[in-house]
């Protein structure tokens, strides 16, 4: 397989544009994750996206150790590993200990990218299920100070955010000493994030796309991306899969992307997007697709919540 192109973050670190996502709910058996990651490394994947709440850090760490031992990779330094701070640790005093715990589980001395997973704080145990009843006040500037400390100590080579709107990034930038390197958000041809991408580009913040195929199968996902007639037409005309068209579209938008798959054929297919192009005409037609955000954060929105509407939660970016 070919080498995946890299972009350079504002931290000066290179990041492969294609990563393997590992967010699955309910959590799969650890052995499933381990085997898929090892196979991905055999195919040439070097960027792996995890989070403390996914349950994938331990099998990812095992796969890294196995790959080094078997000579699939020369050293850990060949990899780009992302993990994330979960909402229950969104307090300045919890950030560094949370990362240290993730590193212990991963069996690593550092991660390449550490992200604030969501711009909210929750009480209770660490779990994927979120509830508006669990929302606590959060001081994001002080949490960001904790993130900056992680970078200063060399435990995270780059730091960033996820699910941040233009408004939330603007507020963060009034306090931040270190610019977020990445904002990882939902992005695909049916939710193109034009306003947010333009804003982040102006600030020097790289956009990374999660669920670049629409997250069909997730509780909030949809098949509207892969079932879009224009995407079907383009795929058929080029002899490519619909997923490949979506990932190539993202690549031509200048973003990185972390599709989740544990399927060997799809992992291979996702790599095969760098030696062909979508035409300007096809890109134009895709730009006209009706837009819809799928991840509305339903569980966090209610009449009695801090967030009364989806527009409240996403600062009007819905």
Helix/strand/pairing category: alpha/beta
- Give the helix proportion (percent range): 25-40%
CATH topology, by name, is: TIM Barrel
Q: What would you call the shape?
A: globular
Overall residue-averaged pLDDT value? 93
Query: Could you name the ranges where pLDDT drops below 50 across 5 or more consecutive residues?
Result: none
Strand order of the largest sheet: 3-4-5-6-9-10-11-12
Largest sheet: 8 strands, parallel
Secondary-structure element string: EEEHEHEHEEEHEHEHEHHEHHH
**CATH superfamily heading:** NADP-dependent oxidoreductase domain
Number of helices: 11
Distance between the termini: 38 Å
Q: Identify the CATH class.
A: Alpha Beta
* CATH architectural category: Alpha-Beta Barrel
Count of individual domains: 1
Cα gyration radius (Å): 19 Å
Overall number of strands: 12
Q: What is the strand content? A: 5-15%
Domain NADP-dependent oxidoreductase: 18-286
GO molecular function, one term: 3''-deamino-3''-oxonicotianamine reductase activity
Binding site for substrate: 117
Keywords: Oxidoreductase
In words, what does this structure look like?
The chain has 11 helices and 12 strands. By secondary structure, the chain is an alpha/beta fold. The protein has a single domain, classed as Alpha-Beta Barrel (TIM Barrel), CATH 3.20.20. Helix 1 (30-43) packs across helix 2, helix 3 packs across helix 4 and helix 7 packs across helix 8 (242-252). Helix content is 36%, strand content 14%. The mean pLDDT is 93. The longest helix has 15 residues, at 92-106. The protein is globular. The strands form 3 sheets. The protein has an 8-stranded parallel β-sheet with strand order 3-4-5-6-9-10-11-12. Strands 1-2 form a two-stranded antiparallel sheet. The chain has a two-stranded antiparallel sheet with strand order 7-8.
